[in-house]
């Protein structure tokens, strides 16, 4: 919904990354994915190139769910977040090339040939 996409973008940065969705949603629903991505942003809400996904300590001091020292912000990470927010707001994926929609969406709607 428009309100949830906007509130995710404008909400205060969480203190810890959100690794799972609320129990009322599945983790792969677009709004849950948007919330998860937002949780990995730094204090300026910029998304890092890489997020450490292991719970064991490192010699570099990386912490679970935190950026690994790679590029922050990373343009394509931020663009992916914005496109996902736009899709959540629109209620469907945006900027899907016609050839992709024809092959993977429209084909599923047609009966299969025997």
TrEMBL record:
InterPro entries: 6-hairpin_glycosidase_sf, 6hp_glycosidase-like_sf. One of its GO terms (biological process) is carbohydrate metabolic process. Residues 11-26 have a biased composition (Low complexity). It comes from the Archaea. Residues 1-26 are annotated as: Disordered. This is Glucan 1,4-alpha-glucosidase. It comes from Halorubrum saccharovorum.
């Amino acid at each position: 919904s428009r309100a949830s996409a906007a509130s995710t973008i404008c909400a205060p940065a969480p203190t810890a990354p959100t690794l799972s969705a609320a129990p009322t949603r599945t983790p792969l629903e677009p709004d849950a994915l948007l919330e998860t991505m937002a949780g990995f942003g730094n204090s300026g809400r910029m998304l890092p190139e890489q997020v450490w996904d292991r719970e064991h300590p490192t010699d570099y001091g990386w912490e679970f769910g935190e950026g690994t020292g790679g590029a922050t912000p990373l343009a394509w990470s931020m663009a992916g977040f914005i496109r996902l927010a736009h899709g959540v707001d629109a209620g469907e994926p945006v900027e899907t090339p016609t050839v992709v929609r024809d092959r993977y969406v429209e084909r599923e709607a047609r009966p299969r040939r025997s």
